[in-house]
Specification:
It comes from Paraburkholderia nemoris. Pfam families: SBP_bac_3. Belongs to the bacterial solute-binding protein 3 family. The structure is a single chain. With 275 residues, the chain is of the alpha/beta class. It folds into two domains: 170 residues, D-Maltodextrin-Binding Protein, domain 2, CATH 3.40.190; 92 residues, 3-Layer(aba) Sandwich (D-Maltodextrin-Binding Protein, domain 2). The chain has ten helices and 13 strands. It starts with a helix and ends in a 19-residue tail after the last helix.
């Protein structure tokens, strides 16, 4: 019996070593794998205008994140393969290796950085709370005992818990469901990144507004699986080149610039080491 257990133990150890070895090789070769197959699988959200959403006429996915993915792929010398995902699926899809890159309002946090790798932050935006203009709510302290909607697994959810612990957090699968809950009076606040939230405020005819306070000023990055230093370096190089040439600013201005209804400044390219 002891010999059998020992044999099983040795077999298990050898199997784990072999598996880890294969995994390490796969991580080290992912950039080469992308270049060999000629495409970069990049995931974005599917209904977050103007980050990534379906054009009602063409039914094609468009938006800043989609354009950023396509530009990074071009700098790597490959084509982009687009994959829509939910907020809560971003980290699992990367960890399981189902996508190469995530560009989906992916805010950097130290907790997330323990699970996935982040590129430099290519834009920074405030996280805000939307309320009904006639609600009488003017500051965070007014939310004691009230309900705030957030998207499940998002940084607004994280920061509402941190900044307004006296409020009850109610999670939803998408921004549209969050806003509907606010309209129906099921929640009294709607936490969201300002870039995505402006659409709801601007199209409300003055019925809804942002509070003046910010939950946080979120650095947003591209995400990838840990243990892929070559791919991380290549994507960071692509972002650096896009910053230097003005390409990043051009993409941002197309979707968020002064000629759009959003008119939000992008910020700058910040190395993850400085976050």
């Amino acid at each position: 019996m002891l010999r059998t257990i020992a044999a099983i133990s040795r077999f298990t150890s050898l199997f784990l070593i072999a598996t880890l070895g294969i995994t390490s090789v796969a991580h080290a070769d992912r950039l080469k794998e992308i270049q060999a197959r000629g495409n970069l699988t990049c995931a974005t959200l599917s209904g977050s205008q103007p980050l990534a959403y379906q054009d009602p006429t063409t039914r094609q996915y468009v938006g800043f994140d989609v354009d950023t993915c396509a530009a990074v792929a071009k700098h790597l010398g490959v084509q982009m393969v687009h994959k829509p995902i939910t907020v809560e699926a971003r980290i699992p899809e990367l960890v399981l290796g189902r996508v190469d890159l995530v560009a989906a309002a992916f805010g950097y946090t130290k907790e997330r950085a323990e699970q996935v790798a982040f590129t430099s932050s290519h834009y920074q935006i405030p996280l805000k709370i939307i309320v009904a203009s006639e609600s009488g709510i003017t500051k965070f302290s007014d939310f004691a005992g009230k309900r705030i909607s957030t998207e499940k697994g998002s940084t607004p959810e994280l920061y509402v818990h941190r900044v307004i612990p006296s409020a009850e957090v109610v999670t939803f699968q998408d921004n549209a469901s969050q806003f509907l809950a606010l309209q129906q009076g099921k929640v009294q606040g709607f936490a969201i990144g300002m870039a995505s939230g402006l659409r709801f405020v601007n199209e409300s005819g003055g019925k809804y507004k942002f509070l003046d306070e910010d939950l946080a000023h979120e650095p947003t990055c591209l995400g990838m699986k840990k243990g892929e230093p070559e791919l991380l370096a290549a994507v960071n190089k692509a972002l650096q080149d896009m910053q230097a040439s003005g390409e990043l600013d051009a993409l941002w201005n197309k979707w968020y610039g002064p000629q759009t209804k959003f008119n939000i400044p992008r910020g700058k390219l910040i190395p993850v080491s400085a976050l």
